[in-house]
Specification:
homodimer; about 180 residues; mainly alpha; Arc Repressor Mutant, subunit A; two-stranded antiparallel sheet; DNA-binding
Amino acid sequence: MESLSGTGYVILGMLGLGARTGYDIKGIVDRSTRFFWAASYGQIYPELRHLEKAGLVDGKSSPTGARKRKEYRLTEAGRAELVQWLGTPPQMPELRDESLLKLFFCDELPLEQALEQLRMRRLGHEQFLALLREIDARPGADPTFVALVLRYGIAYAEFNIAWCEEEEQRLRKAAREAA
Amino acid sequence: MESLSGTGYVILGMLGLGARTGYDIKGIVDRSTRFFWAASYGQIYPELRHLEKAGLVDGKSSPTGARKRKEYRLTEAGRAELVQWLGTPPQMPELRDESLLKLFFCDELPLEQALEQLRMRRLGHEQFLALLREIDARPGADPTFVALVLRYGIAYAEFNIAWCEEEEQRLRKAAREAA
DNA sequence: CGTAACATGTAACGCGTTACATGATTGG
DNA sequence: CCAATCATGTAACGCGTTACATGTTACG
């Protein structure tokens, strides 16, 4: 069996964490993994049907009154697939960071504007940090690893802020010394 | 004028840094930005033609003997477009980290296997770090911001390694206390 | 003489987003 | 009654990768 797309595993995982409908999954993703792995309805619904055909999830219609609604559960095979995937070693970290790309080309710019780039990166991460802290402060205890990943996000943002500050200072100092 | 794709800007930027042919651009990307922004021939060649039509680059045929070859240069408009893009503020950091996604779902797993996940993430970043250090040790001075981004990669890998170690310890300690 | 490096390109596919369309139910 | 939330879906598009195809030139 060829392996699923990343989003396929997100769906399996979310069903494992208690999500029931496609709508559910989307909601949970938007409040959690979206920072490092998003998912849209345009993928979720077709993928759920695909997973069902593959026997990894089991869907039964359970409408709320006249509102149509379909509940999915992991099958044994689905849980096995998820666990197997969790066990495979990760590839090189796959980043896609536009702000880093801009920084890479900053030799094109006068120093002031380049510093501004660095400042904007820092600001972005400061906003990001604020958002994560807010999520962190919300009541209710997350499962161990859900909380762990949230802590990672916070640490990551803090790391980036500190790095930007250091480099801003370093560049300013170098500029002073050149003058 | 609607804005270019990320790869469009990579091409402009690389031409700014001295790349001349599509082949050149691909080579430089593979040795530098590929860690946070890759590019394939399947994109580069069509995009170069597209940028030429848009007047952002200027291409002239300059074969090496009978081997066909086309040299591109940034036009004034192309440089302006690049600088303008560099000046726009970045969005939220857009991460796509499969290993983090796996960690997120580790509550499904017995602690030993979950710890193994964390260990594998660490190993991945250790390899990554080794690779970047190797690149860093290569002779030849990079432009300021090219070097800055390389330093970022190294710091990022080190941060991740340290974070994994800390969390491994924390989880082990929590497990001991629970026992 | 062979192979690595130089050089350009295309077609098919996969993954994912955006925008749109539709409708029921709950709570203020 | 109205707005927010619940709920499901599709079509078009954009971006990017992979695999393939082709040929030249430099170097050991």
